[in-house]
Amino acid sequence: MDIVIEKLVQVWDDGRDGVRALDGISHHFRSGRLTCLLGPSGCGKSTLVQIVGGIEQATSGLIRITDPNNPTAPAARAGERSIMMWQNLNLFPWRNVIDNVAFGLEMDGVARQQRYSRAKELLATVGLKNFEYKMCSQLSGGMRQRVALARALIMDQPILLMDEPFAALDAQTKIIMQEELTRIFEKMRKTILFVTHAIDEAILIGDEVVVMTARPGRIKEIIAIDLPRPRTQELVNSPEFGRLYDRILHLIRQEVLDAMRQQDEAVA
Amino acid sequence: MSNGRGGRRPSMWLRLLPALSIILFLLLWEMVVRLRGILPIVLPAPSSIFNYLVAMVADGSLPYHLAVTFARIIAGFLVAGFLGVLIGVLMGMSSIFSRIIDPWIAALYPLPKISLIPLLIIWLGTGEAYILTISAVTAFFPVVISTYAGIRQTDSGLVNTARDLGASEWQVQTKVVVPAAVPSIFAGLQLGMGVTIILVVAAEMIGGSNQSGMGYLLIRFGQVMETEKVFASLIALAVFGGVIIKLQSAMDRWIAPWAVKKS
Ligand SMILES: Nc1ncnc2c1ncn2[C@@H]1O[C@H](COP(=O)(O)OP(=O)(O)OP(=O)(O)O)[C@@H](O)[C@H]1O
Ligand SMILES: [Mg+2]
Question: Separation of B223 CA from ligand 1 center, angstroms?
Answer without folding.
Answer: 69
